[in-house]
TrEMBL record:
<keyword id="KW-0949">S-adenosyl-L-methionine</keyword>
<dbReference type="InterPro" id="IPR023149">
    <property type="entry name" value="Trans_acon_MeTrfase_C"/>
</dbReference>
<comment type="similarity">
    <text>Belongs to the methyltransferase superfamily. Tam family.</text>
</comment>
<dbReference type="GO" id="GO:0032259">
    <property type="term" value="P:methylation"/>
</dbReference>
<dbReference type="InterPro" id="IPR029063">
    <property type="entry name" value="SAM-dependent_MTases_sf"/>
</dbReference>
<keyword id="KW-0489">Methyltransferase</keyword>
<protein>
    <recommendedName>
        <fullName>Trans-aconitate 2-methyltransferase</fullName>
        <ecNumber>2.1.1.144</ecNumber>
    </recommendedName>
</protein>
<dbReference type="InterPro" id="IPR041698">
    <property type="entry name" value="Methyltransf_25"/>
</dbReference>
<feature type="domain" description="Methyltransferase">
    <location>
        <begin position="34"/>
        <end position="123"/>
    </location>
</feature>
<dbReference type="InterPro" id="IPR023506">
    <property type="entry name" value="Trans-aconitate_MeTrfase"/>
</dbReference>
<dbReference type="GO" id="GO:0008168">
    <property type="term" value="F:methyltransferase activity"/>
</dbReference>
<keyword id="KW-0808">Transferase</keyword>
<keyword id="KW-0963">Cytoplasm</keyword>
<comment type="function">
    <text>Catalyzes the S-adenosylmethionine monomethyl esterification of trans-aconitate.</text>
</comment>
<dbReference type="Pfam" id="PF13649">
    <property type="entry name" value="Methyltransf_25"/>
</dbReference>
Amino acid sequence: MAWNPEQYTLFSDHRLRPALDLLAQVPINPPSVIYDLGCGTGNVTSIISQHWNDAVVVGIDSSEEMLAKARGDHPSIEWKQGDISNFNPTSKGNLIFSNAALHWLDDHETLFPMLLSNLRPGGVLAVQMPNNFNAPSHQNIYELAQTPKWIDKLGGLVRPAPVHNINWYFDLLSPLARRINIWETTYFQVLEGKNAVLEWTRSTALRPFLQTLDEKSVDTFEAEYAERLLEAYPQRRDGSTLFPFSRLFIVVQTDED
Ligand SMILES: C[S@@+](CC[C@H](N)C(=O)[O-])C[C@H]1O[C@@H](n2cnc3c(N)ncnc32)[C@H](O)[C@@H]1O
């Protein structure tokens, strides 16, 4: 799908915080080859690169729009266009980092072991993924898309929740790992402005649905969705909106040899 870097960076503080929480748990120092998969506009990649400034850092993303911003903002970092599901670098990494990207890919049973196989001995895979597919922000998109009015155009875009539970990842990854650190956090994000949750999902979960509609249908779909959102996430007396957001974190270190 096409990404919109401007819309995505509207909530950059909220989006950055889990990336920093993940980075704080990476147990190796200093890695020499680092890949940031699904690097987007590269703001997290740039923090990684400042943190380990002797390392070779490569940001990989499938979206040319996001990479164009990354290249413009951080010209000294290496950026590559590519699909994470085909990740097969010539030089294996000490650290593979991925913030808020792997939930866009299906089949994690194959994906995660494939990523681990691209690490050097003792290397680390560090991943953060939203785990809010059952939240009203997402369920209301899926429910609306499956109503008779929208199902022909949008029904096919509803996919099963791509992210599994903590036990599932632990059972998959612990036989392949020396150490595994896995946790979940719900951030109670305070958003400002009217239709704040709609503004948020416009750049992420809602995006594939809007992209298949013409302009008039976009307005209608958004209005129906916004009405449901206001019920699920009412604006507080001070004008803010509390938007609880669950995220799953996984840090896996492989054996030394
Ligand atoms: C929500 S953004 C996160 C960007 C960045 N990691 C951050 O923390 O700001 C998700 C990014 O994953 C990228 N992405 C999604 N599926 C991908 C795939 N199969 N291969 C490569 N990149 C992908 C998107 O293009 C987008 O830039």
